[in-house]
Amino acid sequence: MASVASKLYSDDVSLLVLLLDTNPFFWSSTSIKFSQFLSHVFAFLNAVLGLNQLNQVVVIATGYSSCDYIYDSSSTSNHGSLESSRIGLPALFGSLIEKLEDFITKDEELIKEEEVEDRIASSLLSGSLSMALCYIQRVFRSGNIHPQPRILCLQGSPDGPEQYVAVMNSIFSAQRLMVPIDSCYIGAQNSAFLQQASYITGGVHHTPKQLDGLFQYLTTIFATDLHSRSFVQLPKPVGVDFRASCFCHKKTIDMGYICSVCLSIFCAHHKKCSTCGSVFGQSKLDDASPVSNKKRKAPET
Ligand SMILES: [Zn+2]
Ligand SMILES: [Zn+2]
Fold first, then answer.
1. Ligand 1: distance of its center to the CA of 55 in Å?
2. Residue 269 C-alpha to ligand 2 middle, in angstroms?
3. Centroid of ligand 1 to alpha carbon of 269 (angstroms)
4. Which family does this protein fall into (predicted)?
5. Mind listing the pLDDT tens digit for each residue in 32-76?
């Protein structure tokens, strides 16, 4: 397999994979309407496609309990039905809106009431990140010539600590593939996941102050292709929230215990690592006793 650098199409042709947060719990609580938000996003996508005729845009919807591909500009079946052109929608995004509506309806059907009560109303970011990476991997394997991929997370929902491991695995995969994850966080809190994703993969993280100017933030920061980024002043991270979630209760913690064999994180002391099975030594006396299982004994850190 050729290295990533040698397979590039040209230095300014982009493949933008946009992860769109459609979480109904977030959109029912925010000041900006989902339709207003979409009009900013569509204008931005049009701008990206207009910058270079070889640019490609893929949109993945991130719902509460599911995620799905809803638009691919390289696909030929993008023209919406007569219905959407009749109500005055741009032809380019006619099929996107139809698929988005279907997706949101299906996603809401999957929401179970009892589940909502004991879970933070986060979106399925880990799922859509994985889908984006799968798509990019397919593009990488399709041949020697392909656009330069990047991922943009447009997220408003809070982080779901129970997705910590899956999100971090996706981030490290993106880092390996040299795919930057840009993130635009429009929610009320800060997103440690997105801050870490952009920091680790060399992407840009930004939290717009005024959502009615979202289009301007999107075009001036996130429309910039990777080649041009060295020539413009983009927002620099002002401190990244590096907190992790414990593997035992999926809670965000400031300090905890780490298994020295597999690096699993726990909020309290355990006798045995639940991930790799290593037995944590308590004292020197413990070390002298025979190891009952065949796993390595790990010193507690
Ligand atoms: Zn815990
Ligand atoms: Zn372990």
1. 44
2. 12
3. 9
4. Belongs to the TFB4 family.
5. 899 999 999 999 999 999 998 889 999 999 999 899 999 998 876
Q: Report how far residue 87's alpha carbon sits from residue 100's, in angstroms, rounded to the nearest whole number.
A: 16
Tell how far the Cα of 266 is from the centroid of ligand 2, in angstroms: 10
Ligand 1 centroid, distance to 2 Cα (angstroms): 42
Q: What is the pLDDT of residue 299?
A: 57
- Distance (angstroms) between ligand 1 centre and the Cα of 246 equals 5
Cβ burial 115-144 (10 Å sphere, 16+ → b, else e):
eeeeeebbbbbbbbbbbbbebbeebbeeee
Helix (H), strand (E) at residue 288: helix 284-288
Instruction: Give the chain's mean pLDDT.
Output: 83
> Domains in the chain, ordered, with CATH?
5-230 (3.40.50.410), 243-301 (no CATH)
Which ligand does the CA of 261 lie closest to?
2
Q: Which amino acid is at 125?
A: L
* Nearest to 60, CA basis, from 103, 105, 106, 13: 103
The helix (run of H) or strand (run of E) holding residue 95 is: helix 94-110
Out of 4-8, 90-94, 239-243, 255-259, the most confident range is 255-259
Given a cut of 70, whether residue 89 has pLDDT beyond it is no
- Spell out the residues 6+ positions from residue 99 whose beta carbon is closer than 8 angstroms to its own: 68, 70, 71
Q: How far is the CA of 104 from the centre of ligand 2 (A)?
A: 39
